[in-house]
Amino acid sequence: DVRLVESGGGLAQAGGSLTLSCVVSGITFHDYAVGWFRQAPGKEHEGVSCIVNEDGSTHYADSVKGRFTISRDDAKNLLYLQMNSLKPEDTGVYYCYALFLGVENWGQGTQVTVSS
Fold it and tell me: Which pLDDT band, with edges at 50, 70 and 90, does 94 fall under?
Protein backbone atom coordinates (compact mmCIF):
# COMPACT_ATOMS: atom_id res chain seq x y z
CA ASP A 1 0.00 0.00 0.00
CA VAL A 2 1.08 3.55 -0.70
CA ARG A 3 1.57 5.54 2.44
CA LEU A 4 2.66 9.13 3.04
CA VAL A 5 3.15 10.31 6.61
CA GLU A 6 3.89 13.92 7.48
CA SER A 7 5.57 15.12 10.64
CA GLY A 8 7.19 18.24 11.99
CA GLY A 9 4.17 20.47 12.34
CA GLY A 10 3.43 22.37 15.50
CA LEU A 11 3.27 25.82 17.00
CA ALA A 12 5.73 28.53 16.00
CA GLN A 13 5.99 32.23 16.56
CA ALA A 14 5.96 34.66 13.68
CA GLY A 15 9.45 34.89 12.29
CA GLY A 16 10.28 31.40 13.44
CA SER A 17 11.01 28.22 11.54
CA LEU A 18 9.65 24.71 11.19
CA THR A 19 10.72 21.80 9.05
CA LEU A 20 8.11 19.39 7.77
CA SER A 21 8.99 15.87 6.72
CA CYS A 22 7.06 13.34 4.70
CA VAL A 23 8.11 9.72 4.62
CA VAL A 24 6.77 7.76 1.67
CA SER A 25 6.41 4.01 1.28
CA GLY A 26 4.87 1.65 -1.23
CA ILE A 27 6.04 3.44 -4.38
CA THR A 28 9.20 3.92 -6.40
CA PHE A 29 9.74 7.32 -4.88
CA HIS A 30 12.20 8.76 -7.40
CA ASP A 31 9.65 8.27 -10.22
CA TYR A 32 7.20 10.64 -8.59
CA ALA A 33 6.73 14.38 -8.63
CA VAL A 34 6.23 15.42 -5.03
CA GLY A 35 5.09 18.48 -3.21
CA TRP A 36 3.14 20.18 -0.49
CA PHE A 37 -0.32 21.70 -0.29
CA ARG A 38 -1.91 23.48 2.62
CA GLN A 39 -5.42 24.11 3.82
CA ALA A 40 -5.99 27.19 5.93
CA PRO A 41 -9.23 27.75 7.84
CA GLY A 42 -11.78 29.35 5.57
CA LYS A 43 -9.48 29.32 2.57
CA GLU A 44 -9.08 27.18 -0.50
CA HIS A 45 -6.55 24.40 -0.74
CA GLU A 46 -3.27 26.02 -1.86
CA GLY A 47 -0.30 24.50 -3.61
CA VAL A 48 2.78 25.51 -1.62
CA SER A 49 5.69 23.91 -3.42
CA CYS A 50 6.65 20.98 -5.61
CA ILE A 51 9.60 19.19 -7.16
CA VAL A 52 9.34 17.95 -10.74
CA ASN A 53 11.05 14.57 -10.87
CA GLU A 54 12.09 14.78 -14.54
CA ASP A 55 14.47 17.67 -14.07
CA GLY A 56 14.48 18.27 -10.34
CA SER A 57 13.10 21.77 -10.76
CA THR A 58 11.34 23.30 -7.81
CA HIS A 59 8.36 25.60 -7.77
CA TYR A 60 6.86 27.77 -5.07
CA ALA A 61 3.71 29.71 -4.47
CA ASP A 62 4.37 33.45 -4.54
CA SER A 63 3.27 33.63 -0.91
CA VAL A 64 6.20 31.45 0.25
CA LYS A 65 8.98 32.28 -2.23
CA GLY A 66 12.20 33.17 -0.50
CA ARG A 67 10.97 31.74 2.81
CA PHE A 68 10.28 28.05 2.16
CA THR A 69 12.60 25.45 0.66
CA ILE A 70 11.50 22.07 -0.64
CA SER A 71 13.86 19.14 -0.94
CA ARG A 72 13.81 15.39 -1.32
CA ASP A 73 16.03 12.48 -0.37
CA ASP A 74 15.29 9.68 -2.80
CA ALA A 75 17.57 7.26 -0.97
CA LYS A 76 15.42 7.61 2.14
CA ASN A 77 12.05 8.21 0.48
CA LEU A 78 11.76 11.51 2.28
CA LEU A 79 10.33 14.87 1.30
CA TYR A 80 11.04 18.02 3.28
CA LEU A 81 9.70 21.53 3.54
CA GLN A 82 11.93 23.98 5.39
CA MET A 83 9.81 26.93 6.45
CA ASN A 84 11.53 30.11 7.62
CA SER A 85 10.28 33.57 8.49
CA LEU A 86 6.90 32.10 9.28
CA LYS A 87 3.85 34.33 9.21
CA PRO A 88 0.44 33.89 10.85
CA GLU A 89 -1.03 33.42 7.37
CA ASP A 90 1.09 30.27 7.01
CA THR A 91 -1.20 28.62 9.54
CA GLY A 92 -2.98 25.57 8.20
CA VAL A 93 -2.84 21.84 7.66
CA TYR A 94 0.04 20.86 5.40
CA TYR A 95 -0.27 17.83 3.18
CA CYS A 96 2.43 16.11 1.18
CA TYR A 97 1.64 14.37 -2.07
CA ALA A 98 3.26 12.17 -4.67
CA LEU A 99 2.15 12.20 -8.30
CA PHE A 100 2.93 9.79 -11.12
CA LEU A 101 1.09 9.19 -14.40
CA GLY A 102 -1.90 11.14 -13.15
CA VAL A 103 -2.26 9.18 -9.92
CA GLU A 104 -2.11 11.20 -6.76
CA ASN A 105 -1.25 9.93 -3.31
CA TRP A 106 -1.73 12.07 -0.21
CA GLY A 107 -0.68 12.13 3.41
CA GLN A 108 -3.03 12.75 6.29
CA GLY A 109 -1.70 16.23 7.00
CA THR A 110 0.16 17.96 9.79
CA GLN A 111 -1.02 21.11 11.55
CA VAL A 112 1.12 24.23 11.48
CA THR A 113 0.08 27.14 13.68
CA VAL A 114 1.94 30.42 13.61
CA SER A 115 1.21 32.92 16.35
CA SER A 116 1.70 36.65 15.95
Answer: very high
Encode pLDDT of 34-65 as tens digits. Answer: 999 999 989 999 999 999 988 889 999 999 99
Residue 106 per-residue DSSP state: E
Task: Give the tens place of pLDDT for each residue, 59-68.
Answer: 999 999 999 9
Spatial separation of the C-alpha atoms in residues 10 and 5, rounded to whole Å: 15
How many beta carbons lie within 10 A of that of residue 28, not counting itself? 10
Cα distance between residue 55 and residue 99, in whole Å: 15
Backbone CA torsion sign across 84, 90, 91, 96: negative
DSSP per residue, 46-62: EEEEEE-TTT--EEE-T
Q: What torsion, rounded to 10 degrees, do the Cα atoms 41, 71, 61, 107 define?
A: -30
Is-contact 68 49, C-beta < 8 A? yes
User: Nearest-CA neighbor of 36 among 86, 78, 96?
Assistant: 96
